[in-house]
Amino acid sequence: MPARPVDHPAPRVRPFRRSDRDQLTDLLNRHAAAVLPGVSASVNTVLGSLEQRPDEYVTDPWVADRATLVAEERSRLVAAAHLLRYRDDADVDPSYRGSGSVEWFLHVPAAAGPADHLMAACLAQLATWNTRLWHADGNLPVPGVYGVPEPWPHVRALYERAGFRHTGGTETLLLATVRELPTGPTPHGLTVGRTLGGLGTRLTARRDGHTLGHLEVDTGLERAERRSRDGALADLADVDLPDDAPDEVFAALLARAAEWLRWCGVDRVLAYVDGAEDADDTGEAERLRRHGFAEVTRTARGWTRARS
To answer: In this structure, what CATH number is given to the domain that contains residue 186?
Structure first.
């Protein structure tokens, strides 16, 4: 007797419900962990991010509407997307004014069909909002995950099928364990002072009363409810050091930063470098590599699509 064909019901696309929270968090954390080892968000963090992103203090006040849509097969959530509509007001930056955004889109790699159905619903919602330009991103509520990272070829392919094009830059993400950063005393004649900076704790190198440069470490990336499973994570929020500065200056800054991070209970530190700067393997990225950092991934920022 011939086998009966397997019934594959069409995916169901619908608005997010609170009862989806555990499956959505699992899908989001699997995408995040493929980019940076061990990072994760709690259910409460994920739910809160659907209502507001206080860490996006510049752009979040410009948001007028939010919507989260999902696709499910046999009661399994296989794709999800979060959409934003930006206000068409004078106080909104012109590049955002009146635009819509697929703030993130996540799907099981094997579920390309349901993902396409969900994307069609997303584009329909952006059109219903009467937005003039459409953006796409992968901005998750965890540190260091934004744009379309290299470990997400399924998301990149989906965006391209939907007509989005990469019109922005590419950033390199580097990671170091604190124990791999330089150690030892500050060289004779060099001092490193600690103050509050614009983005975090600032460490400034000086010699003979002259400022040589500084770096800032942000140890506030992870609120307690979304801390990485295997330890705390910080980032180099700002590095201001001339390209021709002696290596010993950068090493001294990192050594003092490492000491501070250990006191803070941080075991890993993240750094970001614009891809264009690293085209010939020189500059900031190479300097970071010489001092304990390794490339984790690259991420493509800035995806846009003109409204049909």
So the answer is: 3.40.630.30
